[in-house]
Amino acid sequence: MAFTSLEGKTVLVTGAAKRIGRSIAMRLYREKARVLIHYGNSRQDAEEVSALCGHAPIFQADLSKVSEIERLFQEVGPLDCLVNNAARFTKIDPLLVTEADWDFIHSTNLKAYFFCAQHAARQMLQSEHGGRIVNISSIGGIQAWPMYVHYCASKAGVIHMTKAMARAWAPKISVNSVAPGAIPFEEADSAPLQALKERTPAGRFGTGDEIADAVVYFLTATQFVTGQLTVVDGGLTLT
Ligand SMILES: NC(=O)c1ccc[n+]([C@@H]2O[C@H](COP(=O)([O-])OP(=O)(O)OC[C@H]3O[C@@H](n4cnc5c(N)ncnc54)[C@H](OP(=O)(O)O)[C@@H]3O)[C@@H](O)[C@H]2O)c1
How far is the CA of 18 from the centre of ligand 1 (A)? Predict the structure, then answer.
């Protein structure tokens, strides 16, 4: 079954107060979805997004803790769609990564994606029309970045976990992933970022709206599309 339209569909977007998550929430609102905005610390930004999304409900939770995920899913109620977006990013020499550094990244980027999807799937499997899950990964899950080994591992985990979840919960739930390339939101005029831009076949950075386009595709596609990865990177991974 296809969700041909998102009108009236309940969609939780994690980490929706800022940047890509905010773009996704605002795009889903324009698609007439009932958007639920999750945030961690950025309450004021979340309230701003809420106001821009027709006073959409906002929910706080530290997703690195499974007990908070359980509470969050009790609060949000049944969902049609989940967008796992909230994640952390740190640059650390792999020779210096500590257990705490590893857990800081993996507790949110991989463990939280798993438990949010698990809680959503338990509800969606009870629903007549099933559900849709989109996991935002990264080209860091495909490419090998020497100063981000711990982060690359978390995002490669998201990409493979997406395929295993798709198989576990087919045919009622489709699970797909969007891997953004470089989507800066601040000044991007540092030498490394300029070099990255020049290496990108598209000749520019991407935008949050371009990531949102791919999310909307997966949320409205037939459930025959499942376990897939769409890379939105201006061709960077081709170089
Ligand atoms: N931007 C890029 O260039 C890029 C490239 C590749 C992939 N991605 C992926 O795209 C997604 C969005 O990227 P972004 O750059 O927009 O992300 P971001 O700004 O780094 O993070 C998005 C939000 O995640 C929330 N968050 C992080 N850890 C959390 C936790 N433990 N509990 C609750 N909320 C938590 C934060 O919410 P609060 O502010 O409310 O605390 C934050 O605003 C991420 O999955 C990222 O890995 C981004």
Answer: 8
What pLDDT band is residue 1 in, cutting at 50, 70 and 90? low
Q: Do the domain assignments include residue 166?
A: yes
pTM of the full structure: 0.98
Measuring CA to CA, which residue among 200, 88, 192, 180 is closest to residue 139?
Answer: 180
Instruction: Please tell me if the CB atom of residue 196 comes closer than 6 angstroms to any atom of ligand 1.
Output: no
The C-alpha atoms of residue 47 and residue 27 are separated, in whole angstroms, by 16
Would 5 be classed as within a structural domain?
no
Residue 186 placed within a domain? yes
- Which CATH number does the domain housing residue 123 bear? 3.40.50.720
The total domain count for the chain is 1
Cα 131 from Cα 175, distance rounded (Å): 9
Give the Cα separation of 88 and 35 in Å (integer): 22
How far are the Cα atoms of 4, 32, 103, 173, 195 from residue 108, in angstroms, in the given order? 31, 29, 8, 23, 30
pLDDT tens string 134-185: 999 999 999 999 999 999 999 999 999 999 999 999 999 999 999 999 999 9
152 CA distance to ligand 1 middle (Å): 15
Atom of ligand 1 nearest to the CA of 65: 31
Whether 120 contacts 130, CB under 8 Å: no
Q: Quick check: is 151 catalytic?
A: yes
**Any atom of ligand 1 within 6 Å of the Cβ of 86:** yes
* Segment 22-59, tens digit of pLDDT: 999 999 999 999 999 999 999 999 999 999 999 999 99
